[in-house]
Amino acid sequence: MKTEIDRRLTRVKWPTPKRSRPEIAIAHDYLTQRGGAERVVLAMLRAFPEATIYTTLYHPDDTYEEFRSAKIVTSPLNRVPLFRRDHRLALALLPHASSMLKIPADIVIVSSTGWAHGFHMPGRVFVYCHSPARWLYLTEQYLGRPALHSPVGWGLTALKPFLRWWDGRAARRADRYVANSTVVRHRLKDVYGIEAEVFHPPHSVDTSGERAPVPGVESFVGRGGHFLTVSRLLPYKNVGEAIEAFRGLDERLLIIGAGPLAEDLRESCPANVRIAERLTDAQMRWAYSLCRAVIAPSYEDFGITPLEAGAWGKPTIALRGGGYLDTIVEGVTGHFIESPSAELIRNAVKSFDPSEWDAKAIRDHAETFSEERFRERLRREILEFDEDVFDPYQDGQGGKI
User: Taking burial as the number of CB atoms within 10 A of a residue's CB, which of 118, 134, 165, 361 is the most buried?
Assistant: First the structure.
């Protein structure tokens, strides 16, 4: 039998307990190199600074220094130093390692070029796709040769049926996909049947920061006048064609990058071409600020270098295709070549006239791809998953987005 107190208690409107804010995590394939995708992960981390990063492999010395201060969880493969130095050697093990890497977060922001979208994620999944796996769907372009002409190609050919099944299954589990460029949006439709919006990545150039000369290159560069290529040294990047284009020219080319072809490319460099790697941000600022223009001969899914150059008011000579079609305004911020041949690169360099380019117009265009804009949109996208996401997160001015 209810007492008077019991009856009064049933009429009280008790406040609903405020639930804890959702846990957000970031996932990325592997943090073993310095490239545009890793820059995007850093931008994601600055948007959600409390997030833990999950990745298969992490090699602090070969990627950006900022990751050292982040909380990073890796797969068991990371215990093998050989895999940290070259993730391609772990190819046969990466599907299993990715599937077993569990992320116990409410919302996972995935930066994927082929593996991270396959992590075990019980929560909501937002995939920022740099491209469906190039090594799986564009194998010959990735390898720079027919697949059966290399041991890696043999392995890919043997594993391809299983990898495509695994990859398609992983893609279907996501709640939302976005593409980093128009060409990747088309690729997602062709490969997965996914209709994705384009969400461009940012450049993260701070032109007000410190500049530091690159040891051993300062006298080569002098006070400007050099051309610049910033690229991983892989077959499909066509860096070898850029080197050949400068052979015999009265111009200088500085290449910044690392990769499997580094030794062979160094041996092929004429006296007016130099290769540098593992540069600090201050050294990158120095190299960009003194260059005449950037040479970008690779077919990129997005290609951040024209925007990094643009932040300094520098134009780009680029291959007409891929992500460059999204980032370069022909005749305003850059000039296109129709194929990545040494002859066409050489002709573009010989006809290049700095006086034809408006540095302010180039900088204004690059600003439309700023990191601030990227972070604002990313927060809006994640807000659609959960309205409590923004409680602890504020923009750079101290106000909520």
Answer: 118
Ranges of each domain in the chain: 24-202+371-383, 218-367
SS3 281: helix
CA atoms within 13 A on the CB side of 214: 24
- DSSP 8-state secondary structure symbol assigned to residue 349: H
Can you tell me whether residue 241 is helix, strand or coil?
A: helix
Nearest to 95 by CA among 159, 19, 173: 159
> What CATH superfamily is the domain 218-367?
Glycogen Phosphorylase B; (3.40.50.2000)
Strands, E assignment, 204-321? 226-230, 253-256, 273-276, 291-296, 316-319
CA nearest 311: which of 339, 340, 281, 341?
A: 281
State the burial class of residue 96 (Cβ atoms within 10 Å of its Cβ: 0-12, 13-18, 19+): middle
The more confidently predicted of residues 386 and 206 is 206
> How is residue 332 annotated by DSSP?
T
Residue indicated by tokens 């941000």:
281
Residue 4 three-state SS: helix
Query: Looking at residue 79, what DSSP letter applies?
Result: G
Ramachandran bin of 321, using left for φ above 0, alpha for ψ from -120 to 50, beta for the remaining angles: left
Instruction: List pLDDT tens digits, range 27-40.
Output: 999 999 888 899 99
Q: What's the burial of 228, exposed, middle or buried (CB within 10 Å: 0-12/13-18/19+)? A: buried
Using CA atoms, how far apart are residues 147 and 26, in angstroms rounded to an integer?
33
- Asked whether 79 and 98 are in contact (CB, 8 A), the reply is no
24-202+371-383 and 218-367 in the same fold: yes
Q: Decide: 20 and 386 in contact? Cβ < 8 Å.
A: no
Q: Any residues with CB less than 8 A from the CB of 124 and at least 6 apart, and which?
A: 106, 107, 108, 175, 385, 386
- The CATH class of the 24-202+371-383 domain is alpha beta
pLDDT of residue 400: 32
Look at residues 26, 323, 360, 52 and name the one whose alpha carbon lies nearest to residue 203: 323
